[in-house]
Design brief:
The chain is mainly alpha-helical and 990 residues long. The protein contains 49 helices and nine strands. The chain is elongated.
Length: 990
């Protein structure tokens, strides 16, 4: 039987025990080799022999320096190690206290592998390694090895020695797999040095060892301190060595045995170094990225297509590695940093769709399997991995495979919720018990990575109803509370007994891991807010009646004002503030009059909206700009700001007393003062409308607002009549409309000054009791008119750029005084080389002669001019009849809605443009390349030889003059057909 000891072993054990001296014990040991056969050496027999030899004797042999003169110094050690290596495979012997106490001796022996007597020590070193590896097989042995800092010593041996270093690397990998990231010190130098040596070996070795090294490097990367390595890897060359080694494998004709280790290593590399690591090839950076992505997609499809969940679990390591590559690649492509052509995009999409169809197929089978609620730990981990990678795809391709996704969505929510609560409970306990940060990987939180996909899914009706049916809003609320506890960090309370002692001590600095956790939680809260905003807007009735959403609103009221005012919190602050506004709007009926529990929240939200724009930080003291503190994050919060302004306007209508905060804070008056200071043309139209709508709603809600705003003349004319002069809303609108009708019919009178004429128009439409207001109203109207007509900053920039390349001109129909007023107030002179007003000339558009006049002034043949206009019947028709090089139609906003349904063949031939654009900013892309003509003109202007050509008489304001124009029709009509279509100039209609 296995527990029985053979007679030869019993006899030898008795002899060893009875040995009186070391010499007799040596003799007895030689008898053991003669008397005992290997078949007699069962576990019990080995233990009996080992106990008979005794650790005391072996320790003497290992450590003694007193050897006979004719005996090599290493003989005693060799005998001891031979005995130990034979017996240490038994757990009881390998973890014996005396064996563990001998670890420093073993380490001292293996560190001599490059000494001069290496050849003589070869057997001893091998046996010492064998002892260390046997010890590492058992938990108590691994703990002892860690205590003796074996990882550091083995890493030093591997990086500094030449022989028998593979044993050292194997020992490192064994221990790192047990202790994880906590195996490494906070100084990453040793890790980088080890990776440099092993990666170089991996790159240059072309034997089977290359694939063994791939597995080992994978383990090292998987268990490294990722945050520390990622921050310190800059300047290290081992990532490039890895890239070359993996690239060599994947670009070669290889089988599964070679491909699998390479894919696993690549997955760990991109997980630690980022997907940008795949772009090392300067000449063709996307080549390896696309290769790796396609291989991962193909592998997933091969391993999962038409397979059961159990079959896939057997290849979980390989499939999960491919998942990592796919997820990181999808996230990277969503940033548009990679220039992929249409062919590349199509291939990528096809590959990904095939892979995720296979993933969905397995998930559907698992969702319908009765064992789905009894998954083992490894099975659940693989299920989480499938959900994670699938939701990464759904976050970018929300319309992909809708039917399949809907079938499995309840199961996805179930898995995600389980993972969240498991991860949350672990992290809370981990924090309370002050466990070492790197001791082990925390449970995966799949809900966290699923949030962006959920944000898109809840917009779809079917998916949203599943979301609500599963009560997912409750889970998201719990998730918000948890991440808030991390993002809104508070230092631990100081015990009362220590407060005096620690009063003047600085706050402890947060660890890099804490900072990373806070950053991740802020991002999670932003995603949660976006989901809850969508639900609030799309399910208004549910939100209005929901107790949970009332709790959420109360949470925001109470906690948002406490958030630290730091740049890192700005985006999160904005999302919580606007979510609160949306909830407040839906639950307005539940808010009691003067419920001042929301005071601090409203004040905080006003501050977020108020601080977004200002004039003080602009280079131009009359230009409104985005505040410096908002600029870095403006892309993320720009739409949020507009939504906040819009919702705040709606809330004031529903809860009028909240308007008092806008007055008391000075925000409303601040908006008015800002609008007064802003120069025409620098105020973005959408910002202007947001401010105007807010002010309008504010005045409706609170009569006390009008006197505040009156000081800055900020009300529109109709509002001014209604609020300040007692007009009814209907009469005010009618009066303003009548004036505009009269103005458009006859904007000026050549016999009367503009101010006098337009004031008269106001007098004509005002009731007899209010005709004295005509001059005031005209002044207000004029100010607002040119705010609306002002050129946006981007258009001004475009004109300045175009004028460096082309000659620009304006041809405008209309009365002299009105058109020149417009040109002067909008400062158009500085952008154009030629300005023609039809009333100053014998012709108006579409008469070809006015176009020929512009060509004459510009000194450019008609065939080299482009006409850009908003009216087909005047601008485009005239340009065509004058045989200009090209015509471009820029439809009015009212016409742009039908342009999409209007084909070119529906436009009459005589007014058919060469191109249509819906935005003036798209013009530069349409114009042909320019010559150096503009540059030459600019040089001439510097010396005073060139001046703007215009119909205006500079000596007398608005007096008509008739320029000296030759017979333009005969000059140009005969040569227009011979002109080239190259555009040096541009004639434009106002």
């Amino acid at each position: 039987m296995s527990g029985e000891v053979s007679e030869p072993i019993k006899k030898c054990s008795l002899i060893l025990k009875n040995a009186k001296s070391d010499t007799e014990k040596f003799a007895a040991l030689f008898m053991v080799t003669k008397l005992i056969k290997s078949k007699d050496c069962n576990q019990a027999g080995k233990r009996m022999l080992f106990e008979s030899i005794g650790f005391e004797f072996l320790r003497k042999l290992l450590t003694s320096k007193d050897v006979p003169d004719d005996c090599p110094a290493s003989v005693y050690q060799s005998v001891a190690l031979s005995i130990l290596s034979c017996f240490c495979e038994d757990e009881q012997l390998a973890t014996h206290p005396e064996m563990l106490a001998s670890i420093p001796v073993f380490l001292g022996i293996v560190s001599t592998c490059d000494d001069d007597e290496y050849d003589d020590n070869l057997i001893i070193i091998n046996e010492a390694y064998h002892c260390l590896q046997s010890i590492s097989l058992y938990e108590s042995g691994r703990l002892a090895l860690r205590q003796h800092d074996v990882i550091t010593k083995m890493a030093q041996i591997y990086t500094q020695r030449s022989f028998q270093i593979d044993e050292a690397l194997t020992l490192i990998v064994t221990l790192v797999a047990r202790f994880g990231a906590n195996s490494w010190e906070s100084d990453p130098k040793l890790f980088h040095a080890l990776l440099q040596r092993v990666s170089l070996d991996f790159e240059t070795d072309h034997a089977e060892r290359k694939f063994e090294l791939a597995d080992m490097i994978s383990s090292l990367l998987f268990h490294c301190r990722r945050d520390l390595v990622a921050r310190t890897v800059q300047g290290e060359i081992w990532p490039e060595c890895l890239y070359k080694g993996i690239s060599d494998i994947l670009k070669s004709k290889i089988g599964k045995a070679q491909r699998d280790p390479a894919l696993k290593l690549a997955a760990n590399a991109v997980d630690v170094l980022g997907i940008e690591w795949t772009l090392h090839d300067v000449e063709n950076p996307k080549k390896f990225f696309l290769l790796l992505l396609q291989l991962a997609a193909i592998e997933v499809r091969m391993q999962m297509d038409n397979k059961s969940f159990n079959q896939c679990v057997q290849q979980a390591d390989l499939i999960t590695a491919c998942f990592i590559i796919l997820e990181l690649s999808i996230n990277f492509m969503s940033t548009d940093q990679l220039d992929l052509d249409q062919k590349d995009k199509q291939q990528v999409y096809t590959g990904l769709k095939g892979a995720f169809s296979a993933v969905l197929g397995v998930l559907v089978k698992l969702a319908n399997d009765t064992k789905k609620d009894r998954l083992q730990k490894t099975e659940k981990a693989f299920a989480y991995a499938m959900v994670r990678v699938l939701t990464a795809w759904l976050a970018q391709e929300t319309s992909a495979m809708k039917n399949q996704v809907s079938k499995v969505l309840p199961f996805l929510f179930k898995l995600a919720n389980e993972s969240f609560y498991e991860s949350r409970d672990y992290r809370i306990a981990h924090k309370a018990n002050n466990v070492d940060d790197h001791e082990q990987q925390p449970p995966a939180d799949i809900l966290r990575v699923m949030l962006p996909a959920i944000c898109h899914l809840v917009v779809e009706e079917e998916a949203r109803q599943i979301f609500l049916k599963e009560k997912e809003e409750q889970v998201l609320y719990d998730c918000l509370l948890f991440h808030w506890s991390i993002a809104h960090y508070k230092k631990p309370p100081v015990p009362r007994a220590e407060r005096l002692k620690r009063m003047n001590e600085p706050d402890p600095e947060m660890t890099p891991q804490q900072l990373d956790d806070m950053k991740d939680s802020r991002t999670a809260i932003v995603s949660l807010c976006n989901i809850l905003m969508n639900i609030t807007v799309l399910e208004a009735k549910l939100v209005e009646e929901s107790t949970l959403f009332a709790q959420l609103l109360r949470f925001i009221f109470e906690n948002l004002p406490e958030l630290k005012d730091i740049p890192d919190n700005l985006v999160m602050h904005g999302h919580l503030a606007v979510l609160g506004l949306l909830l407040l709007k839906q639950q307005a009926s539940k808010i009691k009059k003067n419920d001042f529990s929301i005071c601090r929240y409203i004040q905080t939200t006003i501050r977020f909206l108020w601080d977004a724009y200002n004039i003080d930080e602009s280079n131009d003291p009359q230009a409104l700009v985005v505040s410096m503190q908002y600029k870095e994050h403006w892309f993320e919060i720009m739409e949020l700001w507009f939504l906040g302004m819009q919702t705040m306007s709606g809330i004031i209508k529903l809860i009028p007393w909240i308007s008092e905060f806008a007055i008391e804070s000075g925000w409303a008056e601040g908006i008015v003062e800002t609008l007064r200071k802003v120069k025409i043309g620098t105020l973005p139209p959408n910002v202007k409308l947001a401010y105007e709508d807010f002010l309008s709603q504010l005045v409706d809600a609170n009569p006390a607002v009008a006197p505040v705003l009156k000081k800055a003349d900020a009300l529109k004319v109709a509002d001014l009549l209604h609020r300040e002069h007692g007009f009814s809303r209907e009469l005010a609108n009618e009066t303003a409309t009548n004036y505009l009708t009269a103005f458009r019919r006859c904007p000026d009178n050549p016999d009367v000054a503009l101010v006098q004429w337009r004031s008269q128009l106001w007098q004509d439409v005002l009731p007899s009791t209010h005709k004295h207001l005509a001059s005031e109203l005209y002044g207000r109207w004029l100010e607002w008119r040119y705010r609306y007509l002002a050129l946006p900053a981007e258009v001004q920039t475009m004109l300045q750029t175009l004028r460096l390349q082309y000659l620009l001109g304006i041809i405008t129909n209309g009365p002299t005084a009105a058109q020149w007023e417009k040109i002067d107030r909008l400062a158009l002179n500085k952008y154009f080389d030629c300005i023609l007003v039809s009333s100053d000339l014998p012709w108006a558009k579409p008469d070809r002669n006015i176009f020929y006049a512009a060509c004459h002034y510009l000194g450019v043949p008609p065939g080299q001019c482009v006409m850009i206009g908003d009216k087909l019947e005047t601008d485009i028709q005239g340009g065509i009849e004058a045989n200009l090089g090209a015509t471009v139609w820029l439809p009015l906003p009212s016409e742009q809605r039908i342009v999409g349904d209007r084909t070119m063949k529906d436009v009459p031939e005589h007014v058919r443009p060469d191109a249509i654009v819906d935005s003036v900013l798209k013009l530069p892309a349409l114009l042909p390349p320019s010559t150096s003509f503009r540059v030459r003109r600019s040089v001439e202007s510097e010396v005073g030889d060139w001046e703007q050509k215009t119909t205006r008489n500079r000596a007398a304001q608005y007096n008509r003059i008739l320029p000296d124009i030759p017979d333009l029709y005969s000059t140009y009509s005969s040569s227009s057909n011979d002109c080239s279509q190259h555009s040096n100039g541009s004639n434009s209609s106002s």
